[in-house]
Amino acid sequence: MLGLEMVVLLGIALVVCGALARRYPIAPAILLVIAGVLIGFVPHLRHAHLPPEVILLVFLPAILYWESLTTSLREIRNNLRVVVLTSTALVVATAGAVAVTAHALGMPWGPAWVLGAALAPTDATAVGVLARNLPRRTVTTLRAESLVNDGTALVLYGLAVGVTVGEETLTGWHVTWLLVVSYGGGVLAGGLVGLLSWQIRRRMDDPMLEGIAMLVTPFAAFLAAELIEASGVLAVVACGLFISQVAPRITTAATRHLVTPFWTLSTTVLSSALFVLIGLEAQSAFRGLSSTTLQRAWLDILLVTAVVIGVRWAWIYTTPYLIRAIDRRPSQRERRVSARQRTVSATAGFRGAISLAAVLAVPRTLDSGAPFPDRDLIVVIACGVIVLSLLQALVLPAVVRYARLPSDQSVIDEIQLAEVFTLDAAIEALDDAAAELGVDGRVTERVRKELDKQRRLVDAEGAGDDPLVQHASEYTSLSLALLALRRGALLQLRDERRIDDIVLRQVQARLDIEEVRFTRAAPPE
């Protein structure tokens, strides 16, 4: 019954926290963490824990795959240098700074590096949820950093754990080889699985089967990388980025209509559940602390949090000036941002699921049979730092206002460009297509008028006083009102038992498609 109770409580927590986040200016992630802490006070429920393997092998592949599919590869290319540096050098710098701090506080070097590696990467889930309304370039850079830096951090983590336990030897060649295998093997495994998935899906015409193939893909990429001891995280990211480029050519509208809502809902539930789990594990970690006092643990948490945040701020406000001194190309000068604008990236260094899974996966004993040094303190500090880093979301709106970010109209402009270009292409090809299909001239003229109307509407976008826009708005309102009446009549037939529920659902689905067409509702990301 414990599992069922947790599922119900988790569902209630997601709904309540989501509703509160809409009503009050508080990030949903923070409310979910608080919900997890509160659940931990219930004696019967505090024993519910999710194994770290489940987080790494089930939660993360699905979440990271969808994040990769919905990010902008073009923006990643444009900001590749920033992404590479923050996902490698910044990770190493953060891990080293945390390790030095933890060792100065009395922790042995091995466990100190384990803690540093676990807290080094930012979290893709937290960044995606908390920075959703930022300009595209800022969001893409943050998301790309958090998608890639896990590979670097997990290599450092595995090495630190191995050396501490007694399974690894620390040499320069060994570290280099691990990094090469992690990055190269991960990207190669992800690319191969993505290529295989592409070839399989392009031969499918069943939306349900293609949706299942899409569901299996991230887990296959993760597994393939793990089999060669490479980074499963990087494999999933590489696979997702590859599929994002080829899928639009092979995926049908029916498939997208099926899989997009499924992935949006499932990844939202998974990521929200992770935040609840963070709160639950934090509460449990503090209860189980035995190697030191709570006062000393809180001091360690505050110091390590200050180091994690401080290193990121120092990096954000030093490396850009060094790069500017080296690279003086005009194209790079155009991409420079002000010191005010960089405060947003500095504040958005949230920690999350990867850090939690890493510390929970720390072995309890060494090869000698002795307990792993300061394991309970590592878990407590990591949970505390994760929670405190998420609290930065409370000041993020104020930071965004301070940064005075320029208005980002690029997405709106590109949407209009795409609509104009596709409509022009259809209008230009109309006569040839009609001749090829043998369509009656009256039908061709009807379609031409519809296309011309859409084209003029796109040109008049935003002009509320334009007669054509007003006409289209009135037409849409009337059509939606009639659709509501049709739904009412449909329900009346069902209630009078003149049609079956199966028929109701089929006709209702068609009405829903018409409503989406009239409202031009964009699918959620």
Span of the ends, CA to CA: 34 Å
Count of DSSP-assigned helices? 24
Q: What order do the helices and strands follow?
A: HHHHHHHHHHHHHHHHHHHHHHHH
Task: Report the uncertain regions.
Answer: none
Q: Pairing-aware structural class of the strands and helices?
A: mainly alpha
| Morphology | globular
Total strands:
0
Mean pLDDT rating: 86
Q: How much is the radius of gyration in Å?
A: 26 Å
How is the main sheet built?
none
Helical residue percent?
over 70%
Task: Tell me the β content.
Answer: under 5%
Any overview of this molecule?
77% of the residues lie in helices and 0% in strands. It is an all-alpha fold and 525 residues long. The longest helix has 35 residues. The mean pLDDT is 86.
List the helices and strands and how they pair.
Elements: H1 2-23, H2 28-39, H3 52-69, H4 73-78, H5 80-87, H6 89-104, H7 109-119, H8 124-130, H9 136-165, H10 172-201, H11 207-227, H12 232-250, H13 253-287, H14 294-316, H15 319-326, H16 330-333, H17 339-347, H18 353-360, H19 375-390, H20 396-403, H21 410-437, H22 441-459, H23 467-495, H24 501-519
